[in-house]
Amino acid sequence: MDSGIIDLVLVGEADKVYLQNLIDKVEPMLHRKIRYLSLSEDELEKFKATLKLDEAIELWSGRGE
How many CB atoms lie within 10 A of CB 25? Predict the structure, then answer.
């Protein structure tokens, strides 16, 4: 069932004010609520099992640069 919510997990530094401004603009267009969680690399490792990352879609990765 579609919950109408999009969950974003961001790893690393993020400009939260800018991100929230983007979310505020996009939510009405998508007719969805967007929630985000910003984690450090260490926090990601700690919460990996809880986040169900096997169900996630990786949109962008700066790793390996």
Answer: 9
| Cα–Cα distance, 39 to 7 (Å, whole number) | 13
**Virtual torsion, Cα 25, 31, 32, 33, nearest 10 deg:** 50
Per-residue pLDDT of the chain (65 residues; tens, 9 = 90+): 778 999 999 998 889 999 999 999 999 999 999 999 999 989 998 988 888 888 888 887 776 55
**What's the Cα-to-Cα distance from 26 to each of 7, 12, 41, 48, rounded to whole Å?**
13, 22, 27, 27
- pTM: predicted TM-score of the whole model, two decimal places: 0.73
